[in-house]
Amino acid sequence: MAPDEVLKKHGLKATAARTAVLAAIAKSKAPLSVQAVVEKLRGTADQATVYRALQTFSEKGIVRRVDLGQGHATFEIDGATHHHHLVCISCGAVEDVEDCDADAFAAQALKRSKSFSRVSRHSLELFGECKDCAK
After folding, report:
1. Which end of the chain offers a freer environment for a tag, N or C, measured as fewer CB atoms within 10 Å?
2. Three-point CA angle 57, 123, 75, nearest 5°
3. Number of folded domains in the chain?
4. pTM of whole model > 0.85?
């Protein structure tokens, strides 16, 4: 679905800046920081506009915030495919991990919990070294 169609589907006005921000996130193979989006757009949208757009997209469930342990938030399209990330602590490389067996872990956590009755979503990032950095 085109970025302007996604925005309209979520009840948002498809401004040039919003469309550009969403397109930049959608085209990326890895989650992007606000600064990376600003750099990709080169004058199309300033930092404040990008922040506001990503906040709105996050609230509407269009993008999701991902913490890759880099000291800043990164964003990716939400709902494309359920996945997690491997993150290199040396060079910052990021790789998607498609396999997820979190249901069993969530069931165990709920069994042990005194206060929670269900898990509605989860997030998992794995940190280590890529093959190049481990040499």
Report:
1. C
2. 30
3. 2
4. no
